[in-house]
User: Fold this.
Amino acid sequence: MMRALYISKTGMDASQFQLDVVTNNLANVNTVGFKRSRGVFEDLFYQTLRQPGAQLANGNTTPTGLQIGTGAAAVASKRIHAQGNLTQTGQPLDMAISGEGFFRILLPDGTTSYTRNGEFTRNSNGDIVNPDGYPLNPNINIPGTATQITVSTAGVVQYFLPNNPAAQTAGTLQLTTFINPQGLESIGNNLYLQSAASGDPQDGDAQTDSRGAIRNGFVEASNVNVTEELVNMITAQRAFEMNSRGVSTADQMLQKLSQL
Assistant:
């Protein structure tokens, strides 16, 4: 009976973790560049009461054995880096990546972070920065008098100056890909950091190797599917209820034993 109580407890913990993942996805349904997560679970240690293939007294071997599981546990929250829908904004410095890759953002401590959020603006110095004021890496500066700012699909940033018909080039946006983007470390603010699991960053221009194209005047919406997440929420709730019923049933059986 005590085993059943513990197993049900681990099931309730796993269901609670799944609900946490789902609610975080739903909370970020309107977050630009957000990638949904999926809970990953595994079964726990098995108590082996009879080893499969063990020798019996009559000389035969057991065909299956007798093993009892001890429950389930959450082991990971896996990012799903599927493409989100591109939404047109018409803003000259809004950018979306169509395909693979991340924008490179320089943090105040000198660390390079990565993002899919292309909501960029210019700060008071003319540097292109993200919503938190962090500049691109490498930095791209556009003078305050610049007009008709454009970004090509290859990431070339150009603008025009008054009384000058020639286009000026401010720089080229670089994108970064990883062997395992699901191994990136999420630090909030739509930013990721490289980790030992993600592999080394592969920097380069857009539309080279496996990197995607940059769409100027668009942003990438969250890839959260509200209907799917609501179904996952109901599933997690029902699993929690069934495991709690297991706790209640085991408790009732223990109560019967104590009354004998």
In short: The first helix runs from residue 2 to 27. The chain has a mean pLDDT of 93. The helical segments are 2-27, 226-258. Residues 86-220 form one domain.
